């Protein structure tokens, strides 16, 4: 009889953000396969879990993957965890899941915390659909291509970034996507110094110009859907933009409101508000 591989989500910060089922699974497993045994031991100690820990991470050899898969095929029960959040989301566990499944081992998800979903839920952005890209390439053509894809994507994009690279990434995203594209920097989620900063890419680039501390998840709003069968009535849009300005809204606030009301990309809405402001200046 084959064993079972449980893919267990663990807290992304607050150690109490773990499900009862996850704790039961960790306690009943023959071993916990951990990306960093030191970090997982902290969680286990906090909740009184005494299951043996075994290291499994991105640098584990193919031979080690095969050995774990064989143990599972022979009846072992393992719990696979990552440092924080849900395994296989920007995490090295996929090789073991693939190998175990190929041998007929039952693979079960034990759902729970996820930094991308936590960031999306509190971002305040339009996120009816989203794409998760992990970490952006560090430099070169692949990085430019990834940012160009974010610019054109209709859905929101969620990514991870190192705190010491956040300022550079925000500046480059502002240049590549547009300074007015709405975004949210979600830092230290569920921890003592949790921060969710919302604004345009240019505003966030200025806010974090000196960098940041902790773990960062970034959400960038998509450009929105285009509707070919319902073209934008620019005259009506300009009239609405002028009305918003007459109500006392600042340019960025009016653009954001216009984008929501007309379902147009934030950059286009901003351009319309600027045009409306210029028209008022010439007529006034």
Shape: elongated
Give the biggest sheet. 5 strands, parallel
- The strand count comes to 10
| Helical residue percent band | 40-55%
Topology as H/E string?
A: EHEHEHEHEHEHEHEEHEHHH
| Rg, Å, rounded | 23 Å
Strand content: 15-25%
CATH topology of the largest domain, what is it called? Cobalt-precorrin-4 Transmethylase, domain 1
Under the CATH scheme, the architecture of the largest domain is: 3-Layer(aba) Sandwich
Task: Explain what you see.
The protein is of the alpha/beta class. It folds into three domains: 4-113, Tetrapyrrole methylase, N-terminal domain (Cobalt-precorrin-4 Transmethylase, domain 1, 3-Layer(aba) Sandwich), CATH 3.40.1010.10; 116-220, Tetrapyrrole methylase, C-terminal domain (Methyltransferase, Cobalt-precorrin-4 Transmethylase, Domain 2), CATH 3.30.950; 234-283. 44% of the residues lie in helices and 18% in strands. The chain has eleven helices and ten strands. The protein has a five-stranded parallel β-sheet. A five-stranded mixed β-sheet has the order 6-7-10-8-9, with helices on both faces.
């Amino acid at each position: 009889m084959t064993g079972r591989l449980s893919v267990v989500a663990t807290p992304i910060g607050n150690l109490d953000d773990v499900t009862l089922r996850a704790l039961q699974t960790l306690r009943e497993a023959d071993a916990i396969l951990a990306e960093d045994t030191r970090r997982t031991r902290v969680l286990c100690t906090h909740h009184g879990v005494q299951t043996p820990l075994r290291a499994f991470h991105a640098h584990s050899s193919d031979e080690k993957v095969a050995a774990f898969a064989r143990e599972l095929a022979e009846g072992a029960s393992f719990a696979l965890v990552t440092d924080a959040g849900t395994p296989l989301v920007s995490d090295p566990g996929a090789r073991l899941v693939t190998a175990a499944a190929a041998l007929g081992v039952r693979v079960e998800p034990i759902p729970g915390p996820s930094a991308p979903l936590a960031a999306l839920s509190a971002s305040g952005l339009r996120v009816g659909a989203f794409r998760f890209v992990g970490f952006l390439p560090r430099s070169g053509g692949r990085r430019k291509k990834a940012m160009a894809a974010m610019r054109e994507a209709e859905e929101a994009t969620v990514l991870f970034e190192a705190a010491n690279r956040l300022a550079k990434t925000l500046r480059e995203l502002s240049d590549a996507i547009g300074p007015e594209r709405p975004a949210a920097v979600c830092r230290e989620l569920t921890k003592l110094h949790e921060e969710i900063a919302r604004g345009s890419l240019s505003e966030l680039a200025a806010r974090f110009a000196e960098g940041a501390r902790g773990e960062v998840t970034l959400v960038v709003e998509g450009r929105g859907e285009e509707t070919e069968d319902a073209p934008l009535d620019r005259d009506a849009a300009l009239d609405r933009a002028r009305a918003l300005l007459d109500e006392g809204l600042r340019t960025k606030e009016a653009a954001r409101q216009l984008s929501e009301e007309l379902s147009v990309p934030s950059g286009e809405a901003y351009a319309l508000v600027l045009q409306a402001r210029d028209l008022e200046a010439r007529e006034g």
